[in-house]
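Exercise 7. Given the encoded structure of a 237-residue chain, write a plausible sequence.
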């Protein structure tokens, strides 16, 4: 396994958009890179957005596999400095976050060597999100899914506890990372009782369960991701 492989965890902008169905005829990707022992590992992201007419392309950079997002450097980082340095329309600091899967496998464009350094913190490019300016102006919407361009397999091992949101339509979203953005004190021990802190829309439910077999969440070019009101991220099964 390649310990330098890095991947995304989703940002504040990933809560904007609409859920769409994956194409059932797509072939299962052949995963080229993987990294394991991720559960409860700290990481951070920087998102850089540039406008092109009525579209906003957001590139997601991630510390996974490079460092554990040193707190002193992360705290000193500012959105304003990133916008200036990268001639960006928008910058978002997304972290600290902690992975909830055990292993990530990647293929296609998700495997790349594009790196940037932000305030001394090295990060890899791990995803691209395209949004319309109309959606951006409408503001971020929790519990609303968006498309994220990546080819990955999130693996949750037998015996692990997973945390899931279920929509009124029956779509199930598995927590991929918890966040200390809204609640800096949130940790993995709080997740079983997280429903007490969540502001679930009507018809939504939150639950935890112990896996009796491995769970794989495959995103074949597109993942459907949402966030709750605490900025924890979930991918649709």
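Solution.
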């Amino acid at each position: 396994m390649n310990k330098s492989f890095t991947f995304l965890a989703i940002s504040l902008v990933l809560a904007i958009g609409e859920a769409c169905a994956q194409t059932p005829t797509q072939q299962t990707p052949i995963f080229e890179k993987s990294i394991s022992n991720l559960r409860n590992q700290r990481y951070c992201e920087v998102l850089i957005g540039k406008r092109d007419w009525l579209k906003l392309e957001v590139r997601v950079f991630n510390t996974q596999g490079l460092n554990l997002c040193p707190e002193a450097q992360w705290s000193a980082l500012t959105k304003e400095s990133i916008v200036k340095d990268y001639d960006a329309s928008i910058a978002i600091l997304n972290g600290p976050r902690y992975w909830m899967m055990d292993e990530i496998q990647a293929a296609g464009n998700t495997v790349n060597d594009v790196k940037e350094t932000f305030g001394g913190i090295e990060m890899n490019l791990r995803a691209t999100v395209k949004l319309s300016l109309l959606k951006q102006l409408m503001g971020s919407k929790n519990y609303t899914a968006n498309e994220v361009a990546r080819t990955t397999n999130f693996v949750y091992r037998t015996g692990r506890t997973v945390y899931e949101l279920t929509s009124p339509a029956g779509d199930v979203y598995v927590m991929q990372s918890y966040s200390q953005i809204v609640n800096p004190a949130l940790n993995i021990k709080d997740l079983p009782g997280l429903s007490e802190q969540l502001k679930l829309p009507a018809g939504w439910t939150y639950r935890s369960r112990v896996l009796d077999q491995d769970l794989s969440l495959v995103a074949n070019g597109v993942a459907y991701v949402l966030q709750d009101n605490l900025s924890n991220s979930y991918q649709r099964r």
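Remark. Confidence is low (pLDDT under 50) at residues 1-25. Students should compare their own answers with the one above.
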